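Entry for the shared binder. Reason: the reviewer on the internal report wants the predicted structure included alongside the sequence.
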Amino acid sequence: MLCVIAAAAAVRRIVVLIIPPTTQRAPQLAGLDVAFASENVLTLSHIVPALLFVLLLPFWFSRRIQSRRETHRRITYALLLLGVVVGTTAIELSLHPVGGINEASAAILFDGLFLFSLARAWIMLRRNDIVLHRSWMMRAVAVLLGIATTRPVMGIFFATASVTHLQPQQFFGTAFWIGFTTTYIAGEAYLRAHPAP
């Protein structure tokens, strides 16, 4: 489900960047579109690899693909490479956050954790330690999918804006903290409940 949310968010952003909307939009959404359009190339350099990552991810988890070791290894290498691109471009995007220092701090912390987890997964794969490789890949995946968890949280903030009067600049950081933390904790809980054989 998180892969679907992430893919939908990425596709929507790509379409809006390539074909800007011509109809009048809610001021909050229009402001976000302008903010992301100002970093057009960087945003696309971040979300296109992220889209490819979440499209490949279900195949990485597929038991049928896992039984085909060479295919699974190729998908793993693709995920590692795409992850590095996503992670490094996220650092640059964090320099111009919509939600200010609150968003930037969440993005930098979890991006650092994402890149560290990818590096550990790569090292364990090179050492042929598949059990630890899987654990570190799962941590990286949990962090990356945190961005999908932020979407429903942001949706709640947008839906309640008429009551709370909060602007995206005020709630983006909080949504990032909630989304990334929740998904990371869920990933760690899964690893502890389902240790690799």
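Summary line for the report: The longest helix spans residues 130-159.
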